[in-house]
Design brief:
4 helices, 79 residues, disordered C terminus, 2 strands, 434 Repressor (Amino-terminal Domain), mainly alpha
Length: 79
């Protein structure tokens, strides 16, 4: 069974934050994380995962923000 592509990349996180008209600090406060973490997501240093990924998805759905393509990841096994 193919893995699901990560839903939240740097561009997606930044686009959602801008869609919500929030600063990185405000977004971090809403997610219960640090501003630095949001910055790291937006620069591509790290990707949101686990509960952060789920929270971003819930926020996006409630805000009517389209995200992810839902296509399986064909790049190979998880590392």
């Amino acid at each position: 069974m193919p893995r699901r592509k990560p839903v939240w990349d740097a561009d997606g996180v930044r686009a959602l934050r801008r869609h919500l008209n929030l600063t990185q600090a405000e977004m971090a406060r809403e997610l219960g994380t640090r501003q630095q973490t949001v910055s790291e997501w937006e620069t591509g240093m790290y990707r949101p995962r686990g509960i952060s990924e789920r929270l971003l998805s819930l926020i996006a759905e409630r805000a009517g923000f389209e995200y992810g393509d839902g296509k399986p990841d064909e790049s190979g096994p998880a590392s």
